[in-house]
Design goal:
The structure is a single chain. This protein is mainly β. Strands 6-7-8-9-20-16-15-12 form an 8-stranded antiparallel beta sheet, with no helix packed on it. Strands 5-11-18-17-14-13 form a 6-stranded antiparallel beta sheet, with no helix packed on it. Strand 3 and strand 4 form a beta hairpin. The radius of gyration is 18 Å and the shape is globular.
Length: 296
């Protein structure tokens, strides 16, 4: 429930898939769905455009289970946690219910704020720190997801974070990604050492799991089959992750259809690996991903 009184007319709280509560946003410039489970945006459709985000047809909607698609919030670690195979992949934030702090209408935008505070369960995890996280989600002609983490304990904390956006594309094999030219990256499917980039746009030809180090500007996904360009702008982030499982891995994933990998590309605004965030007691950090769509 909202902790700040009634929601505006453009936002309603209702049961979603699997009975999980979700916020349905119907604004002047866009519509969206946001699950309290993980504070996860699962749909964003700006007026005059198709849905921008991809949600797996086989996604599971259940307590303690990640939703496959949309914009999952990865925190306080990214990927598998070294030495702890029992820890949830990408941290506990995306499999934990968040609280609605409020919603407001600002011009053509609708802004929803959700929060997550440490609990007995999170403190019993492999990241036993005091914190408060806020997800401020702006639904309009652009979608902005701003994740703010504040340390509320008496010791410094270090964490990783990512806004793991699943973008819908016509055919990932024909997509060109620009904005990462000249940026070194770590190939998680190869060795741990950074790789020198290949000049020109990135074209995916197989399984891809790369952490681009210190990108300097927006990333653009040119989607000729879908007939549009998607632009992702990060603020407060030191890495960009590019991911697609390709056919063999997709076939092994129970919550992703065997053919769905062709219609998705993950471009993740993030602070992972060498860009992990360190906060002193009482300090906070904000990372924002902004998504925009334009005709091709």
């Amino acid at each position: 429930m909202s902790t700040l009184g009634a929601l505006p007319a453009s936002v309603r709280l209702e049961p979603g898939a699997g009975g999980l509560p979700r916020l349905v946003v119907t604004g002047p410039a866009a519509s969206a769905e946001i699950y309290l489970h993980g504070a996860q945006v699962t749909r964003w459709q700006p007026s005059g455009h198709d849905d921008v985000l991809r949600l797996s047809r086989q996604s599971r909607f259940a307590e303690g289970t990640a939703i496959r698609g949309g914009v999952p919030i990865c925190f306080p670690w990214f990927g598998a946690l070294d030495g702890h195979p029992d820890a949830p992949s990408h941290g506990f934030a995306r499999v934990t219910p968040w609280t609605v702090h409020g919603a407001e209408e600002t011009g053509d935008d609708v802004v929803v704020t959700l929060g997550l505070t440490d609990s007995a369960a999170t403190r019993a995890s492999h990241w036993p720190h005091a914190f408060h996280a806020t997800a401020r989600i702006t639904v309009g002609a652009q979608l902005a997801v701003a994740l703010t983490v504040r340390s509320t304990g008496d010791r410094p904390v270090t964490f990783e974070e990512a806004l793991h956006a699943y973008l819908g594309v016509g055919d990932v094999r024909r997509v060109e990604v620009t904005g990462l030219e000249g940026v070194r990256y770590v190939d998680k499917l190869g060795g741990p050492e950074p790789v020198d980039p290949v000049p020109g746009p990135v074209r995916l030809t197989g399984p891809t799991d790369r952490i681009y180090l210190a990108p300097s500007g927006p990333t653009t996904v040119d989607d000729p089959v879908g007939g549009r360009r998607l632009r992702i702008t990060g603020q407060g982030s030191g890495t960009t992750v590019l991911w697609n499982p390709w056919a063999a891995k997709a076939a092994e994933m129970a919550d992703l259809g065997d053919d769905e990998w062709t219609g998705m590309l993950c471009v993740e605004t993030s602070n992972v690996g060498p860009a992990a965030v360190r906060l002193e007691p009482g300090a906070s950090h904000t990372m924002t991903a902004t998504f925009a769509v334009a005709p091709r």
